[in-house]
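--- STAGE predict ---
source: upstream dedup step, 1 unique chain passed
mode: sequence only
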Amino acid sequence: MSGYVKSETHKGITSIEFFHPQSNSLPSKILHDLSVRIKHAGEDPATIVIILRSAGEKAFSAGASFDELVTIKNEKEGLEFFSGFAHVINTMRLCPKFILGRIHGKCVGGGVGLAASVDYAIASEAAEVRLSELAVGIGPFVVGPAVERKIGLSAFSQLSIDAAHWRNADWARRKGLFAELHNTTEEMDESIQRLANTLSHSDPDAMTEMKRIFWKGTEHWDHFLIDRAKISGRLVLSEFAKNAIEKFKK
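--- STAGE serialize ---
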């Protein structure tokens, strides 16, 4: 199995789900399909609010696919891979509909970036977070602006520097990454459904204007995140990164 991205719409609520057998990691194909599905939902008049979720009961997302990282042979390929994260974040940013995040489990690297890019994240206590990029010879350059926007420079730098340390879900809630934190998956899902139902009966135009205000100051991200992707694309070619990624894979 290579994973999937699928979506369904019911009474104004579009649920977009992604899955990959390796802890919901994010290879290029899934990143591309996420961008396409989110863009389509944003343009679909039948969609009023979006829920972003991943399948399974364990990790929300393990971030970048290590299998794909080790195949990168030059800076062009590196740019193409990391630009996938830039495109997803920018698609979420520009989507005129509110995106609710269902964060049911651990988030690593790019997974933290997804959680930071939704407009309202609702999580369970299993949703620990870690930015592990420095440990594999790169850094959270592409997802960093989205994470910093949500939790501030101090908390973002803590996550980035201590790349091997997990922060629990309560830490993430207190820093602003998660809007809500629930003891059980059932309570989390009830809260997501409640809010989605409420928003599905709200004024779409008002929500679009609100979202534009919430993302004010990010208008340059179309180019900014691609420039960040170039940095990651170059660093992933180093001997340090290649050796570190192989160790992580084992």
